[in-house]
Each structure stands twice: as C-alpha cells, then as structure tokens.
Design brief:
Blueprint lengths: L5 E5 L3 H9 L4 E5 L16 H13 L3 E6 L8 H14 L3 E4 L2 H9 L6 E3 L8 H8 L3 E5 L6 H11 L2 E8 L11 H6 L16 E5 L5 E6 L6 E3 L4 H6 L4 E4 L6 H20 L8 H9 L5 E2 L50 E6 L2 H9 L4 E5 L10 H13 L3 E5 L6 H12 L6 E4 L2 H7 L6 E3 L8 H9 L2 E5 L6 H10 L4 E7 L2 E5 L3 H6 L8 E5 L4 E6 L5 E4 L3 E3 L12 E5 L5 H15 L8 H7 L4 E2 L13
Helix pairs in contact: 1-9, 3-4, 4-15, 5-14, 11-12, 11-18, 13-14
C-alpha cells in the first residue's frame, strides 16, 4: 500500500523530543514558553533558543517540527505575540497550530511564511468552516474529537484538506473550545492552557426539581484515554493523514514506548495490509503501561458508560476540587470604569419561547435572539418565527435568529433551509465558522456568539473584516480585559450581563449512560462535592449542556459596561414572567431611570443563586 501516513509525536522537553525522533516519529509538535496549551509546569516547553535548536535537530533527522500557538490571546499579550511570530518566521518551523483569530490575522498581515494548522481548539467539524479556514491559508485541520472516522473521511473527500486526528492520549469530555468551567471558577482558562480539570471531579446525578439522587457520586465526566492501536486499518482507510499522539507533559520513556509501538504497527500495515494483524506483545506493553483505561471515544461509535473512568482510581492527578462559585458581591476592580459615552447600549435578550420573546419585547428589549437549541423538544416552527418577527416589527424592535453552537450536516441543512425562507429576520447570530460562512451567502447582518471565544481586539477586527457587525465577548475575560476589548475593537462588542450559561457542552448522552433510559424530562442536574447544583439540559440534537451553579448577575455593576454596544440577558432557561421582570429592571437601569434598586427582588426570584463569574478575578491568567 503506497500511502503517506504521518506519525505525529508530542514533546515537552529536549529528551522527549529526541526520544520521539529515535522512536520513529515523522513529525513532532511542541510549545514555546508562552502561547500554548500546556503552561502549568515551568520545566516543560522550549525557550526561544531551544526552539531554534529543536527545529534544526528535527530537520537534521528528516523530521518535521510544528509549534503550538494554540491558546486564546488577550489584548495585553498582543505585542508579545507579534514579536513571537516574527521570531518564528526567522527560525521557520514546518507549521504552527492556531486557535485565536488574532494569530491568523497577524500571520497574514505580517506576511509570515509559515503554514498554519487549525488546532483541535477551533472545534472544526463542518465543510463550511474548513472552506473558510482554507481561504486564510490553513493547510491542515485537527478535526473535532466528536467526529467519527466516517465523518472525517467525508470531510477530507469534500474539502481536500489534510486531516489530523488524535489517536492516543488524554481526551476532553467537552467539545473543544466550549468548556469555560476552569476559566470562570478559577480564572485559569482551559482555552489558555491552564485547565484545572473540573471534568475530573465527582458528581451526583439528581432530579433538580426534587433533589432526589438518581445516581450516586462518581467521576461522571472522567473520559478514558483514547487508544486507536487496535484500529489502525480503520484510521488509515479513513484517509487520516496525521496520527497525533497526545502527551506533551509525558516522560521521554513514555513517549518512546508509545511512538515506537505505533510506528511498528503502521509500517506493518502499509507494507502488507492483507496480512496485517495486531502484535500481541506490543499491545500488552501498551496496555500494561497505560495511564487511564482505554477508549476509542467517537471514532467508531457513540460513547457509552464503558468509556468513562467512573471510579477515578486511574486518574494520574486531580488538579483541583469543587469550590463554591463567586458571590455576586465579589466583583474585582469595580473602580476601574470605562469612559462614559452619550450613546447608551442596546438591551438584548436571548429566549427560548414565543411567550418569553413577547415578554422581553413588551418590557423594553431592543433585540431578541430566538432559535438554535431548545431543551423541551419543541423547536420553533416557521409559523412561530413569522409570528414573533411581525410582533417585534410592530413595536419597532428587532428579532435576530440564534443558531446551534455545533452544526454538523443536519444542523447546517436546517439552518440553510430556514435562511432560505427569507422570513425577514433582522440578523443572524452565528456560533461557529461554518454557520458564519453559510450566513454570508444571505443579506442578513451577522453577529458572532459566545462560542467564538472572542478574547482580543485583533480577533474582533478579523471578524469585522469578514462581515460581522457585532460580536459577543468571551465569558472568561476579566473586567480589565473586557474593557480593553471594548475600547480597542473596531467591531461593536456585546456583553452578557445576566443569565444562565453553560460551563461545558458535550456530545455524550449522560442520561442514557447513568440511568440506562432514553426517557427525557427537563429537571436533570449534577451536584458536585461543594454541593453546587449544575443544571443539565439536553437539546434537540442530543447534546448535553452543563450549566454553572450560579447565574451571572451584573445588575449592581451595570454602569461599568455602558461603552459596550449591547448588553445581553441570557434567558433561555427562564419563564416568560421572569423574563418580563428582568427585562423591565435592566431597561430602567440602562436608561438610568430606575424606580428602585431591584437587587433584593432579583435574589429572591432567581431560579439559581447569583454570581459575578470571572469578574471576581483581576484577569484571566495569561500564558506569557
């Protein structure tokens, strides 16, 4: 079989680099001392001079070297990012792995001559997103972990782009880039290389409405390690180009063992596919030296309870333990106000039902977002949309179509169908590059949602250059960082000021796993060891949305955010009556005409406790 397969190995130290090359890696990926997804340990990663030496060493051994530049960048880090890219252009790695749009923008603006690979953190899972990225010089996609090999093969056939797939190592339970739990609770973002792994905590599954324990404490999100050793023929025949091993924090001995075992197996299959069989001795070595138990995750089938390490006994390290989320009075640096401006921000409300939409519009919302995921198995119909659009327009208000955060083939087709109905929406709020690219074919104004993880003004400028008229700031930005984004961005910025919001989004069916039922009802929740209750909602596509235990509430700090273009209430989980109350009191506050301070009423009537989220911290801890 004449087929090129790249075996891609991790390296966190010089000895790990040489071990990976000695073991037969075709390429190695590693990170500098900053701007990468593994920054917990100071004795790992490579300083600038070591990066140059590593590139020279790899090239002397006919091995490619890729540098990870795959975390989110805040405004204060942009000057250092620019200098770093200029330096990388001098030493010429074979590619850089990217997540933040600011990196893509700077590479193009500075005419950096290094190929770019889209990191797993970009959660690339549809053709439309791939075509968008290709237009900016992305030459390879590290595809979403939730994609099966059949889906990967189809995307490869449709797009022609190189695909990279994780074949071994630690796996996240959440969709990549869509977990903000660590960033909000600890100020250490998983999207910035500092995840403290709340997915590895123990949780009870409960009925949220009664408190009844449905399934006792266990490590319900502790996904086992990926291991595709026994399924290499399936990987190769799915036309995966690069076989990626996770493990930049692993020892040289660990790296050598895994790379050499996969090297031998790949070569055996390519040399004689019809006579290939698994080497029992190598499999025993791999299995006996495992960290966690093994899984194939989504590669071959949907996950089951067998893919979860429920006991936690094989967890190599627990990075944190459950803590109580920030209180509503813990806002940091409240005296650091933005400059007041004469134009007041718009008030937007995201809702799930027609009744809630009307409640928001009747009580002062300028914009209502409706559509996307629903949690009661009653998606809105075309007639529903027409009704609410006509109602809003009669009040001279706007209705913007919300879209699902994840858009595979089904969701893209449904969105395309809806947009082609020309229902007179006032705009569309997109949640990933695929839906963005699709929406650009229509004449509607486009804005980007929280799932874009907007962290800096360069990334905002990138979105504006591509047709966005507004963007939501990341919920992991501290006040000083969000202030910098708003002040420096050429694109209008929306801030979420109140509401329930997800800490993780998962494609795993937890109710089926832990209760062994397909029954659906709305009151599932997870209770952590700090007695915090996290609502668990299942959308119409079967995805599980895990919410923070406390709802964001910036009512007492609203004057700090008046320079934003829009202030949003995320009210998808709220009743129409509560939406009426919320919209009314925030309308008065935005207009600076409060009849009274309603904070005590907010606390009394809120379905969950209130908090300030990441605004407890001086900043989202950086990676410089």
């Amino acid at each position: 079989m004449h087929k090129k397969i790249e075996l891609l190995a991790p390296a966190g130290t010089w000895n790990a680099l040489t071990a990976a090359i000695d073991a037969g890696a075709d390429a190695v990926y590693l990170g500098g001392k900053h701007f990468n997804m593994r920054v917990h340990k100071n004795d790992f990663n490579f300083d600038d001079e070591q990066l140059k030496q590593a590139i020279d060493y790899a090239h002397d051994h006919d091995v490619k070297l890729y540098i990870t530049l795959n975390n989110l960048i805040s405004d204060e880090e942009l000057p250092a990012l620019k200098n770093y890219l200029i330096y990388l252009n001098e030493i010429q790695p074979d590619a850089i792995l990217v997540q933040d749009f600011s990196v893509i923008k700077l590479v193009n603006d500075l005419k950096i001559k290094i190929p770019m690979h889209a990191s797993i953190m970009m959660n690339t899972h549809n053709l439309q997103a791939i075509e968008f990225l290709k237009s900016y010089g992305i030459t390879r996609i590290v595809v979403s972990r939730e994609l099966s090999l059949d889906q990967v093969k189809l995307l490869r056939e449709q797009s022609g782009i190189e695909t990279e797939y994780f074949i071994h190592g630690d796996m996240c339970i959440s969709e990549s880039g869509q977990c903000i739990h660590s960033g909000v609770v600890f100020g250490q973002s998983g999207n910035r290389g500092r995840c403290l792994k709340p997915c590895r905590w123990s949780y009870e599954l409960i009925d949220e409405s009664t408190g009844e324990i449905l399934n006792d404490h266990s490590y319900k999100f502790a996904l086992k390690d990926m291991c595709m050793y026994r399924y290499l023929p399936e990987l190769i025949n799915a036309d995966v180009y690069s076989f990626k091993i996770e493990g930049r924090m692993r020892s040289p001995e660990f790296i050598f063992r895994i790379v050499s075992i996969y090297r031998r197996a790949i070569d055996r299959y390519l040399n004689d596919p019809s006579g290939y069989k698994i080497n029992a001795d190598d499999w025993k070595i791999l299995f006996d030296n495992r960290v966690r138990d093994y899984s194939t995750v989504f590669a071959l089938n949907k996950t089951t309870i067998n893919d979860i390490g429920l006991t936690g006994e094989r967890e190599p390290k627990f990075f944190s333990k459950a803590i109580v989320e920030a209180n509503v009075d813990e806002f940091y640096n409240a005296e650091c106000r933005m400059k007041n401006v004469e134009l007041k921000p718009k008030l937007s409300v995201r809702v799930a039902t027609i009744d809630a939409a009307k409640s928001a519009l009747n009580n002062g919302a300028d914009i209502v977002y409706i559509g996307g995921e629903v949690f009661d198995q009653n998606p809105l119909t075309i007639e529903n949309y027409s009704e609410i659009i006509n109602f809003a327009h009669s009040l001279n208000k706007k209705i913007v179509l919300n879209t699902p955060r994840t858009t595979y083939f089904r969701e893209i087709n449904e969105l395309n169908f809806l947009l082609n109905k020309h229902l007179n929406f006032d705009g569309v709020m997109v949640s990933n590059l695929g839906s963005f690219n699709l929406a650009k074919q229509f004449s509607l104004p486009i804005q980007t949602d929280l799932s874009f993880n907007l962290f800096n003004h360069n990334a905002a400028d990138f979105l504006k250059d591509n047709g966005a008229f507004m963007a939501a700031a990341s919920l992991e930005l501290s006040y000083s960082q969000v202030k910098s984004l708003i002040v420096n961005s050429s694109l209008p910025i929306e801030i979420v000021i109140h509401g329930s919001y997800e800490s993780m989004i998962c494609d795993h069916n937890f109710i089926k796993m832990f209760l062994n039922v397909n029954e659906f009802y709305k009151s599932f929740a997870l209770k952590d060891t700090a007695d915090q209750i996290h609502s668990l909602k299942i959308d119409q596509f079967g995805r599980n949305h895990i919410y923070f235990a406390k709802d964001l509430c910036l009512y007492n700090y609203l004057n700090l955010f008046r320079q934003a273009a829009a202030l949003r209430i995320d009210a998808q989980l709220y009743s129409a009556d509560f939406v009426s109350f919320l919209t009314k009191i925030y309308r008065q506050a935005v207009d600076d005409q409060p009849q009274q301070n309603y904070f005590e009423d907010l606390q009394t009537n809120s379905p969950r406790p209130l908090a300030v989220g990441v605004y407890k911290f001086i900043q989202s801890k950086n990676s410089i």
